[in-house]
Structures are given as C-alpha cells and as structure tokens.
Amino acid sequence: MKKHTIHLHPLGKKIQVNDQTPLIDVLHELGIEFPCGGKGTCGKCRVRLLDGKIEISDIHQRRIDQLELTPEWRLACFSKCTGDLTLEIEQFNALILADESLFDFVPQKGFGIAATGLEILANHLSISLSDIGQVYIAGGFGNYINLENVSALGMIKLPTERICKMGNTALIGAKMFLFLDEQIPNGILLKTKHVNLEGDPNFQDIYVENMSL
For a Cys-Cys bond, which of 7, 60, 74, 207 suits 86, CB 3.0-4.6 Å? Predict the structure, then answer.
C-alpha cells in the first residue's frame, strides 16, 4: 500500500501513514482532542496546511466557512492524507508555562472552580477533603501544572503527595484499556456517578468563597 509522510509542527515529528488515512486517526493517537466528536462544529482540531494538499469536501468547506477560517486551515476530522503533508497543529500552539517560568499572578473569575468541584464532590460522598486518598488530574491541564503551586494556591486543597498528574489521557488509550476485559468497564460504571456541580444548592456559596484564592 502507498505510504505518505506527514511532518507535524511544532512537534518536529515525522510519521508515515497509509494512503487515504483519516487525520483524525493519526492525531487521536498523539493526544489531540476532538470535543465535538468529529462533527466539525467546534474547530478545535484545526490544522494549518503548510505544504501539500488536502482535498476539501462540500461539508468540510461549509464547516470552514462557518468557523470563519482562512484558506490555509483544515479540520482534521474531515481530512484524509492522500500525499506528503506538512501540518501545524493548532492545539500544540497553546502557551505552556514550564515549572520554572515567572509570571505575574492576578486571581480571576473561574480560578477556584477546581477547588469548588472537589468540595462539592466530597459533600455528595459525605466525606471531608482529608478523607480523599488520591486525586488524579488528566488532560493538558494535568500535563504541565506545578503541583506545589496548585496546592499552595488552594486550587486543590490537598497536599502534593495526594495529587497525581496523569498527562494527556487520550480517548484511544482509554478505549484500549476498557475493552481488554468487559468486567473492567462494568466495574467502573458501578462506581461512577455524574454530579452536576452547578445544580448543587451550595454551588454559588462555595464558588464565591473559593474565588477569593
């Protein structure tokens, strides 16, 4: 089968894929998120075409127009690799502060939402924060945060040794894990409960209190 090379920036990564490979399959494995489920409505999977050609279907063009993207942009969820490509991945262009970075901190609205969510979840379980053995943080947020700062600022009111960064836990990895044994997802489902934070009667009071962080 014919192979093509895709150069990915700013990763500096080069991969080979089969002809007609959907970009969503390639980028999913690299941790790229598709919040709208590949429907092309959110634009979060957009990539800048630096070199090469990606055919655009009618629906792909409509989505690009609706998102008001300029001609060099493509949506990975609607794109296939039919030749060598050089792409700039927009999600990897987000500003990341390394642990040693210096910056001026000014509390903003929404900063205390992590602490608020954890407190409400603890209330629903009728436990205190001190009863929580471990908190796992996933996604880009959990990849680059400084745990000492998180604890010191009160974003998560637990000591650092009880906070675990999971990194970018891509959906494909979760699928591979869940479908190894059907008892695993069934066991997780039995332990899982959805809690609507904003629907909690104490949400506003707890949130306002944590906004003073």
Answer: 7
CA distances from 44 to 67, 96, 173 (A): 10, 17, 20
User: pTM score, two decimals?
Assistant: 0.47
Phi, psi (deg, nearest 5) at residue 9: -115, 150
Contact in structure between 46 and 24 (CB atoms under 8 Å)? no
How do strand 163-167 and strand 135-138 relate by DSSP bridges?
Answer: parallel
For residue range 183-205, what is the model confidence (pLDDT) as tens digits? 766 777 787 777 887 788 888 88
